[in-house]
Amino acid sequence: MRKVNVVILVLLAVAFLIIIQRNLLSLSDFLHKEITHTGAILPFEAELSPDHRVDLERQGDEIPVVMTAAEERLGAAVAAMYSIYQNTKANVVFTIVTMNETVDHLKAWLSAPRLKSMKYKMVLFKPELLLGKIPKSPQMIDGTKPLTFARYYLPLYLPEVEKAIYLDDDIIVQGDIKELYETSLKPGHAAAFSDDCDSASAKGIVRGAGTQNNYMGFLDFKKEAIKQLGMRANTCSFNPGVIVANLTEWKNMNITGQLEHWMELNTQDDLYSKTLAEGITTPPLLIVFYKRHATLDPMWHVRHLGTTGAGNRYSPQFVKAAKLLHWNGHYKPWARTSSFTDVWDRWFIPDPVYKFHPVRRHVEDK
User: Fold this and answer.
1) d(Cα 49, Cα 54) in Å, to the nearest integer?
2) pLDDT tens profile 48-106
3) Do residues 263 and 202 make contact, with C-beta atoms less than 8 angstroms apart?
4) Rounded distance, CA 88 to CA 24, Å?
5) Is pLDDT of 366 > 50?
6) pLDDT tens track for 301-332
7) How far is CA 131 from CA 38, 253, 264, in A?
8) For the segment 252-261, what is each residue's pLDDT rounded down to a tens digit?
9) What per-residue confidence (pLDDT) applies to 145?
10) Which of these, 234, 241, 240, lies nearest to 217 by C-alpha position?
């Protein structure tokens, strides 16, 4: 009898140890997932509305679209998503990269009747990812807002996805996003961008910097680290506000790691051009993707609408024909002095909590 009791006790002890081991393994897997997906934690996911579940026209392969949603520009992100959704029958799924303090506001906005059938998930960006990688210069404060670097970490948000689109929030899409998604990317090319020398969008004039459409406008070619790369200073630059990315190639080529490397080097040696007029997200991308990227159809990235003289640069007929409009530059379509605000206004959905208000001359001057 005593031997039986001992055997039972041993069996119970073994069972107990197995249970503990399994629990520890589960915890380890959980912690590993948190570490692996730093910057891409997904605690919030939208429930699909009943109307969407029966929308048979949107049951094809998913088209992943990544966008950021900053609190002070939330109306822009919502307008951009609405324009994408309304101009396609494709099964678009938005991954919205945002900060914790914006989640409730954004969820309330996306519950609006015209938006509630959209499929989306929210991703919390971790600013700790940028420690030691961006300068603390007050002149660069706008360019160093954490969400501007979200595009560097695309595979973290969509670990199981092979191809995705990234879009800035100051855009409006007038074409079918499926066409952009089908941009061809050959092996060895992890992304497609719009060259700054292409047709109508070429030669964005930057005050004090001349024509900022080549590598010299973004990088300091007097620095040894830049010289050693052997890049031509007059190479046409590209705009990273619209990206079609092959995330498999991105991971295989360690694009994120390469971008972080150049960010860190810049904090040590100030590698970017002194005449850099736009944000500091572009220079590392120019280095990493030098002669290793595909090119987008120019009509899928008509830009410089946020610069001086945009109203004279483009005719209303051309703007209407464009498939994607980008108000890059100082003047935004939700502000008072931008060109073609009427185009943007068609897609704006009022903020349900009344925090975001487009500035319009006829309202302000009353």
Assistant:
1) 9
2) 434 444 455 677 899 999 999 999 999 999 999 999 999 999 999 999 999 999 999 99
3) no
4) 47
5) no
6) 999 999 888 878 899 999 999 999 999 988 99
7) 13, 23, 9
8) 999 999 999 9
9) 87
10) 234
The residue whose two tokens read 């954490």 is 146
Query: Max Cα separation, the chain?
Result: 98
CA distance linking residue 250 with residue 240, whole number of Å:
15
Instruction: Give me 156's structure tokens.
Output: 């973290």
Half-sphere exposure of 365 (CA within 13 A, CB side): 4
Question: What tokens were used for 71?
Answer: 């609190």
Query: Whole-angstrom Cα distance, residue 344 to residue 140?
Result: 27
pTM of the complete model: 0.83
What percent of the chain is predicted at pLDDT more than 90? 66
Q: Quick one: 123 exposed, middle or buried, by C-beta within 10 A (0-12, 13-18, 19+)?
A: buried
Please say whether the beta carbons of 92 and 177 come within 8 A. Answer: yes
